[in-house]
Prior knowledge:
The complex is a heterodimer of chains A (about 120) and B (about 110). Chain A has about 120 residues and is an all-beta fold. Chain A has strands at about 5, 10-15, 20-25, 30-40, 45-50, 55-60, 65-75, 75-80, 90-95, 105-110, 110-115. In chain A, strand 7 and strand 8 (about 75-80) form a beta hairpin. Classes of the chains: A mainly beta (about 120), B mainly beta (about 110).
Amino acid sequence: GAVVSQHPSWVICKSGTSVKIECxxxxxxxxxMFWYRQFPKQSLMLMATSNEGSKATYEQGVExxxxxxxxxxxxxSTLTVTSAHPEDSxxxxxxxxxxxxxxxxxxxxxxxxxxxx
Amino acid sequence: xxxxDQPTExxxxxxxxxxxxxxxxxxxxxxxxxxxxHAGEAPTFLSYNVLDGLEEKGRFSSFLSRSKGYSYLxxxxxxxxxxxxxxxxxxxxxxxLIWGAGTxxxxxx
Lengths: 117, 109
């Protein structure tokens, strides 16, 4: 149980393109989903917390107009990287928890490797 | 401030035992998680501790001391496939996970 699906797994596109990444919880409902970014050989960096039916909560330093998050249902959150540039190239990972209180682990999608040329 | 400390890298021999330590400082505490992350892949959940003591799960065990702000992950009978990064994460009073930078474990034959 607790499967999280993330799509696409790999994106290569030109600078200036907008890229949408989907995150789905397949066998549970997720009121809250999380979006992370990870650069090579570095730790996970939380970008934002996605809340179903309300606005996402962004971490300090993350541009909300550049990284658009929509949590349309209890099983789907999307991250859109708008007008992507080479410095946005990274590994983007989503996670979700069946409950966001103590004891419930976050389960991760397989991640999306984004390369901007 | 909130902080997680764990060693950057460790090396161990196949078949041996290794202990990866983690110390944490958080605003409130709602448990300690360990994740495994292979290179180029997303993290996978290993264990959760909220009470003091040792939780055993097959070859992997996790220990917590709340009074010391300390946890460790113990891996026994090491296999080559255990080569990965191991991430320690503490949950604070707002149920947010505070992540460590990860410990890269290298297993040698």
